[in-house]
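Pipeline run #58 for the internal structure catalog. This entry was flagged by the ingest filter as a single-chain record with no existing model, so it goes straight to prediction. Upstream metadata was stripped on purpose; only the residue string is passed forward. Reviewer on rotation: M.T. Logging verbosity set to normal.
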Amino acid sequence: MTLRLTGVRHAAIVAPHPDDEVIGAAALILALKRQRARVTVVVVSDGAASHPGSRRWPAKRLVAARRRESLMALRRLAVPAGDVRFLGLPDGALPQSAARCRRQLRRAISLAADVDLIIGPDAADAHPDHRAVAAALAGGFGRARRLAYRVWPPRAGFRAMRVTIAMRGGHAAKRSLIRLHRTQLGAITDDPAGFAIAPHELAAFAHPVETFVEVRR
């Protein structure tokens, strides 16, 4: 079923980590901007936990780089820096920061004003940070319509009653946006245990058709 966006004026895209907004909703952001809707992006965690063993990339440098990567990718989608909020909560510890996460998300979405569509991670995503953000978004956000996307595991079976939207420019367009997140694609080489998106994961993340489920309030 094709995703219907008629009447959406202001959408809030909620990403647990810098890059989830592009992996989960790049096509959706582009479609919203084409119909002149405002898009606010809220990035919840600081992204500092991907390479804890790197000496050349201490947390402060990594956080700054990951923010720049998100801003560059979003700029290509016509989302200005002024419409991006970085909450800076601890990467990898969002389940332990549940109350703070919910409080700051409520504040960020409230300050965005007149949000009528909220897009966030699915409650069944395999990553605990994603599930924590989904829980923080449950209830308490007025009458805004809710959609959920899943990142982990990549392209695994998603529930029925889903809606889809295709990325303009196809696979190559989405891959080029994800590739801007160089810190997550092997650019950091001095932490053997650090995270890097594997080639098969990149191929799955760059699939041009994004899938969402409607979340009941």
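catalog note: Strands lie at 10-15, 38-45, 84-89, 117-121, 145-149, 162-166, 209-215.
catalog note: The first helix runs from residue 20 to 34.
status: ready for reviewer M.T.
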